[in-house]
DNA sequence: CGAGAGGTTGACCCGGATCAAAATCAGTGG
DNA sequence: CCACTGATTTTGATCCGGGTCAACCTCTCG
């Protein structure tokens, strides 16, 4: 497989992607931006898409932001390696985490509706991203239409995901939420081609709590209990799912 | 103003819309489907859009459904009059309400992602809808592109709305949720051109509870307390906001 | 007018928030 | 490499919002 973005960014050719992705990095065909990349790839052959629309593999250091809440919308990002949290900064101290984005997932599509990003995106660990500059796309043509098609797919997937999240948050206990959260994380990593049993969770207990609507103390308590029950292994920030079926059991009922 | 849908449905011409919308019905230019209608209108002048794409003002009796969960996706609907609830039927008895749709709002866009509707839509009162048959649209062309643009706008607005809903549900008390819910309802009705102070809420206490993640008893208690505090007037299913500022106060803090 | 669904009100109880303190971790500079 | 420091995590104790159960009331509609 070849990196579909390479040709669009001749100036960083020295970073060209090997046949296999670097360890810890998502392969292009497992990446959420791939449908778009394919289209642009095709488009490029027709010389209809300007260079520089896609910027590949920008490195983002842990703690760095790729955009702030209310920044004017420019691009959608795909997480190539590492992970991000998106959150709404609150004057009252504690930020509201609205999402976690792992390898292969997209950040920032929500900025499409208004002109601005509705949240800040910050790297939870040293990461890298691909950037799709939607603003500089050609204004019409077949490839644009296909891109729109792709965006619609992504957006409606997002809507479906949020619906599930809402019903989960409303009716589930702390145990259920956390079990579901862990399963969702591993499942998402798995569909992106990450097959390791053990992986880094970059987020803090309070991040998870904010996201799931729980106090950080509760997150801590439940996680240690899960560990005692032999469902997970948790050392420092390394998490390992020991008994996925057991977790499903907890999440279901 | 003229009804933009009329010309597409000559066979129901006897139902033609008067200059002013019927009482209790949203005006076309206040309707969520209007951006799409305008485009199709324009397209029609160029004779590019097939007849029968838009079906105007189908009547839906109270309790009737316009589609069921897992039905194959065909159309997006706009509520012309009345209101709908969307919900996921649960084998365990109590359905999960995922949304309320009042005059001028859209129902069913979420079906775009998969091939199927992710929920059932049922009329809370005697209502009428416009139907946009997305499946039978022409496969390419300028008007299709503009339609996609419109869909993207609607979807990302939906995403933004859900984000807000999520953070609300997570961090807010029963009082806050209900105050916010009432304000949101009136605000939405207002932007659709409904300026009456008093209006019908077709939904039951348990519907509201399901939607907001509260027991129906709690909904009842809080609403009667709001009434005692002079914030609202509530007789049977007629609701009147007496003190919007007071409600905002409750919702904020 | 009667029956059944939906709404109100009261009593009780539990999950998880909150407050507090100890323990552990992650940087930082010497 | 280690000690120091602030941040994060863990653990314990207490408290309260809202869920649950139950009885009663009130509409709605056949």
Task: Considering the chains and any ligands shown, give keywords for the structure.
Arc Repressor Mutant, subunit A, 4-stranded antiparallel sheet, homodimer, alpha+beta, Jelly Rolls, DNA-binding, 253 residues
The secondary-structure class of chain A comes to alpha+beta
CATH class of the largest domain in chain A: Mainly Beta
Oligomer: homodimer
The rounded Rg of chain A comes to 19 Å
Order of helices and strands of chain A: HEEEEEEEEHHEHHEEH
And the CATH topology of the largest domain in chain A? Jelly Rolls
Cα(first) to Cα(last) distance of chain A is 42 Å
Q: Largest interface by residue count?
A: A-B, 35 and 35 residues
What's the rounded overall pLDDT mean of chain A?
A: 80
Helix amount of chain A? 25-40%
- Which segments of chain A are poorly predicted (pLDDT under 50) over 5 or more consecutive residues? 1-19, 43-49
Level-2 CATH architecture of the largest domain in chain A: Sandwich
Based on CA inertia axes, which overall geometry of chain A fits? globular
Q: Let me know the CATH homologous superfamily of the largest domain in chain A.
A: Jelly Rolls
Strand proportion of chain A: 15-25%
Number of domains of chain A: 2
Number of helices of chain A: 6
Total strands of chain A: the figure is 11
Strand order of the largest sheet of chain A: 1-8-3-6
Biggest sheet statistics of chain A: 4 strands, antiparallel
